[in-house]
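User: Can you help me understand a structure? I only have the sequence.
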Amino acid sequence: MKPDPSRYRKRNEDSHRLVRVDDIDIAFRMRGEGEPLVMICGYATTMEMWDQNFIERLASSYRVITFNNRGMGHTTSGTAPWSIDRFAADTAGLIQALGFDRAHALGWSLGGDVALGLAVEFPETVERLVVYAGDCGGPQKVPAPKYLGVLKEAYRGRYVPFEGVLAILFPPKWMKSHRGYWRRIPIPRELVRLTSIVKQNKAYEEWAGVYERLPGIDCPVLMVTGEEDVSTPPENADILHERIPGSTLVRFPGAGHGLMYQYPDALADVVIEFLSETAGTAEKNGRDDNGIQGSVYSSRP
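Assistant: Let's start by predicting it. Here is the structure, written out as C-alpha cells:
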C-alpha cells in the first residue's frame, strides 16, 4: 500500500513532517522508492543522527523512513507512560499511519531493542528485521559499565569531555588511525531535553526484555554488531543469534557502536543484501570502499 500524503498534518521548514499516532505527533522524513524500511533511532538521538551516506545508500533500494522516538526532537512526548513496549507501539502505529500494512524495520542501539519489541508484540507489521547493536534486555543482557559511567556523569550535571563521548562510539585504535573522523558525525539541529533523555533511560532500565520470547520471532532477523562495541557489547548479538531461529549475525572487526559512521557503505550493503533475500538465498558479506568486511554466521532453521 502506498502512503497517503493527506495523512501528514504539516511540513516544517527543515522538511520533516508530522503524523498523528495515538497520543503523539511523530516527526518523520521519507526518501527513496521501493519497499518501506523504518529506521528506529538509538538512545537520546534524533533522526538527524543517522549517517547520511548510510541512509542514502539504503534509499537507493528502499523507501527509507526516519523518525524521532517519543519526546525526542520534534516528536511530542504524549501522555502515556514511557516504556520500550510503548515505543514499539508507536513504531507500529507509525507504519499504519503512513499507509503501510507491513514494513522492514532497522533499529540502532535502544532502537534495536524497540525493533525486537515490535517483532514480538506487533509481528503483523514486520517484514524483515535488522537489529544493529541491540540487546534482549532484562537480566540476560550483557551490560556496558563504561557506557553507564558516562551517562551517570552527564545526569549529575558534570562535564563530560567530548573525547569521552566519542570513546563510547569508536574504538581507540580506530580513532587514532582516522584523524578527523569526528567530522562524519552529524550535528543535530533538533533539541533533545534532558528530561526526555532521563525518561527514555528509565524506560530502558525498567524493560523486562524479550529473552524468553525470542524463539517465537518468525520473521527473518539480521543482527549486526561491531566487535569492539563498548556501549552494547557484541556478546548481546550472540545471545540474540542463539535464541532466534534462522537468524543471521554479521560481526564487523575493528568497529564500535558507531559502526555506521565508520563503515557506512559496508553496513548498508549488508542490510540491502539481507532485505532483498528470498528464502534459501545464501548470505553475503558486505564490503566498503576500504575493503572492510563483516563475518557472517547463520543459525540453524
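Now, to help you interpret it: The chain is about 30% helix and 20% strand. Residues 60 and 102 are 20 Å apart (CA to CA). Let me know which part you'd like to focus on.
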